[in-house]
Amino acid sequence: MSNINPDDITEPISGVFRIPIPVPLPLKYLYSYAIALNQDYLVLDLGMDTPQARDAWMKATQHLGLEHGRVRAVFLTHFHPDHVGLADFAADLWQAPLFMWKQELETVYRLFDESPKSLMTFFSLHGMPQDMAEYLDQERFFTQAVVHLPVNPRIQPLDPLTTWGPFQLLDQAGHTDHQLLLYWPERQLLFTGDQVLARITPNISFWPDTDPDPLASYLESLRKLQMLPVRLGLPAHEGVINDVGGRIDELIKHHNERAGRILDLLSVPRTAFETAQHLFKRNLTRSQWRFALSETLAHLEYLRVRNLATFYEVQGIGRYQAVR
User: Fold this and answer.
1) Which of 39, 122, 169, 311 has the fewest CB within 10 Å, making it most exposed?
2) pLDDT band at 276 (very low <50, low <70, confident <90, very high)
3) Closest C-alpha to 167, from 148, 146, 188, 147
4) CA neighbor of 125 nearest in space, from 288, 264, 313
5) Is the pTM for the entire model greater than 0.85?
6) pLDDT score at 1
7) What is the mean pLDDT of residues 22-27?
8) CATH says 6-117+150-265 is which class?
9) Residues whose CB falls within 8 Å of the CB of residue 235, separated by 6 or more in sequence, listed in order
10) Which residue from 208, 203, 205, 206 is spatially nearest to 121, judged by alpha carbons?
């Protein structure tokens, strides 16, 4: 059973309730939001489909009075399991429509309702050891077990809307290709999803068949967000952000420094996995190496696209090297 109780649900600003939903991840919680709009609520993000998360939502529903008819809509920021996993449960619990950006919606059903594409060739190309690559390739099936999507009706696309009620709907790339952020201009509130977090740097990853330059897209997104008047940032993980502009400065600085560090490492040819081993010195689980490799690749491709590094492949193994 979840240990959530009414005291765990906070109200960082009037009418916005922050609900910790336990997830089996190092971050421990997905923070969902129930946003009061007159007599109705908008719910933002859900968590993975686990008994603990279901129990947390049942208690939160009772505490906040989220009966049938009071949840006007559920918005899902992006396709990651800790955000969409309980979609079918939520649709049944509240009898409310669920929405995502259209392109993100296509991704979520492809990954979790169909047979996901093998990543073995991708992992091997970038130097990952065979046993780790095999494990991570199979891990995608474990992930499907905590994601259950509604079928009839399905999650609905938000396109081509740019506003909903008092909110501006922002389509932001980097963490995923089309992450949904909500901005409430009247109250200067930004629901930052996983795009801006208070302590850690969000995962920016390079994957096949997605944005070919995700780090550049992310940095562009941050600069656009920094132009918004924001008094409070409300992220999906960790604490609230009192200085969103200052935190964005820190994130941009981090990525610029990381790119410089990688360029130094590329004075000799290295695979992406070898490069990641130099960057991530702490002990990582096999699952965490998935993100270490993909994050490193995002920086490597950022450098390659700007002609600061080259990529070549010999006998099925790819390597990057700085341009001299």
Assistant:
1) 39
2) very high
3) 188
4) 313
5) yes
6) 40
7) 92
8) alpha beta
9) 31, 191, 192, 193, 194, 196, 197, 198, 241
10) 208
